[in-house]
Write a sequence for this structure.
């Protein structure tokens, strides 16, 4: 079985278990367009969206390695931000940004907020900050996620934070598949940039 066939099988299995397309995309570090293609017309590889699958489960399933990555994300932000940016809260993006954000917030004594993207909410199709964690109003927020695929989710979060009178100071990600320096005017700090060469 090829890597593509394995990914398609995993996407189908997650879909059969009731996961929405956006969540499957997050689970497999692929765009929602790629997941939709896999679930509907996966046999025609000529029409496949251009995407890159990143499997970082070796790191994400090991708490010690995950802690090391969280530390690297914060050091990368601190070393590369244009000025000495103060951060009041870490905003972890559901799902992969939550453990990274939690570890970063704990290490630096910061508040932790959790963002649930609209692609995970089929009922209202809008994103939200969890009421069980830190509020963001008036806070200088560092957004944390695993991967930039299209940038749509991160643009959504920046808009949400600004609408709720928070100030997004940066976006930390492990992998940037788009090669962007900023999203909605907020600087992006990736550990790795992934480029597809056709």
């Amino acid at each position: 079985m090829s890597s593509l066939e394995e990914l398609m099988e995993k996407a189908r299995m997650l879909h059969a278990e009731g996961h929405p397309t956006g969540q499957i995309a997050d689970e497999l570090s692929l765009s929602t367009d790629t997941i939709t293609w896999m679930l509907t017309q996966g046999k025609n590889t000529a029409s496949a969206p251009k995407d890159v699958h990143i499997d970082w489960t070796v790191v994400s399933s090991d708490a010690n390695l995950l802690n090391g990555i969280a530390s690297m994300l914060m050091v990368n932000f601190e070393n590369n931000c244009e000025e000495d940016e103060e951060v009041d809260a870490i905003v972890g993006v559901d799902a992969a940004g939550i453990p990274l954000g939690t570890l970063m917030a704990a290490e630096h004594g910061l508040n932790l907020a959790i963002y649930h993207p609209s692609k995970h909410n089929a009922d209202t199709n809008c994103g939200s900050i969890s009421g069980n964690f830190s509020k963001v109003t008036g806070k200088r927020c560092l957004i944390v996620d695993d991967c930039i695929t299209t940038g749509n989710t991160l643009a959504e979060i920046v808009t949400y934070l600004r609408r709720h009178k928070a100030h997004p100071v940066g976006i930390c990600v492990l992998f940037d598949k788009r090669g962007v320096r900023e999203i909605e005017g907020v600087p992006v700090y990736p550990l790795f940039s992934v480029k597809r060469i056709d």
User: Anything to note?
Assistant: Residues 117 and 156 are 8 Å apart (CA to CA). Residues 57-193 form a domain with the Rossmann fold fold (CATH 3.40.50.2020).
